[in-house]
Amino acid sequence: MTTDSFAPDFAIEATRPSANEIAQLAEILKPGTPVYVTSVSTAVPDKTVAAAKALRKAGFEPVIHIAARRLASADMLRDMLGRLTGEAGVRQLLVIGGDTDPAGPYPDALAVIQRAELRKSGIEGIGIGAYPEGHPRISSERLEASLDEKIASATAQGLRVHIVSQFSFSAEHIIAWLKRLRGSGIKNPVGIGLAGPTSVPSLIRYARRCGVSASLRGLMSGAATGLVGNVGPDRIIGLLSASHHELGNTHLHYFSFGGVVQTARYARDREQTLTEQKAAAHS
Predict the structure, then answer these.
(1) What is the pLDDT of residues 151-205, one digit of tens each?
(2) Does residue 112 fall inside a structural domain?
(3) Does residue 1 fall inside a structural domain?
(4) Quick one: which of 78, 74, 22, 15 has its CA closest to 42?
(5) pLDDT tens sequence across 112-154
(6) H or E stretch including 125?
(7) Residue 200: which domain range?
(8) Which of 100, 93, 157, 77 is nearest to 129 (CA)?
(9) What is the pTM (predicted TM-score) of this model?
(10) What's the domain count of the chain?
């Protein structure tokens, strides 16, 4: 992805995409588009591996969520990684904590990064989570320290590291957070989390579930309905693009709350618009 400006390219998340959805995505998205396969409590390794294989066969770059606290054992993780890399050619993971009590030996994402020998399993790069609006149960100081620890540990192992932010409905919060991040010396690529086109009631539900408090206040007051709604986060993307010189290496990362196919169509159309705008600005 681009290294010096706000990129028109993007990544997209899917929860257990069906064969029909993957076929539709292949007609919408460019080959090589990163498609993240989310971790859900009912996921089983066979289904996760099957989704990764299908995405790879369709020409995409599958990126698999690994939720540390849902891993029952080190053997489970080792076997999963072996299948993902061996059967589906997976090269990237998104390593997250997972909002549940630990089921096994990994209390958080850092533990997976430190202990799982991801490079030996064939993994080349990882994404780590971040929170522009903070986390409801973790202090900002601990979030910052944890981010530094994860980046340092992964980098020391030869892993490429990028950051994926929690979704936000506030361009102002995103931009302020990115400026703080860059000011602290972190230059890694950032996928800016945005909700794809979704109804406002659905967005309120997801915001409550994920603890996106500032965005939730805006949605409840009606102030944010012009930013999201069913047409997608157009205004947020416009403000991010206008501020790209201050944001470093960034791209969009879409959460497909309104459906992965609908989100993919929206993301493709926005990519085309941003590409045309960049071309016009340089002509």
Answers:
(1) 999 999 999 999 999 988 888 889 999 999 999 999 999 999 999 988 877 777 7
(2) yes
(3) no
(4) 15
(5) 999 999 999 999 999 999 999 888 778 889 999 999 999 999 9
(6) strand 125-130
(7) 6-281
(8) 93
(9) 0.91
(10) 1
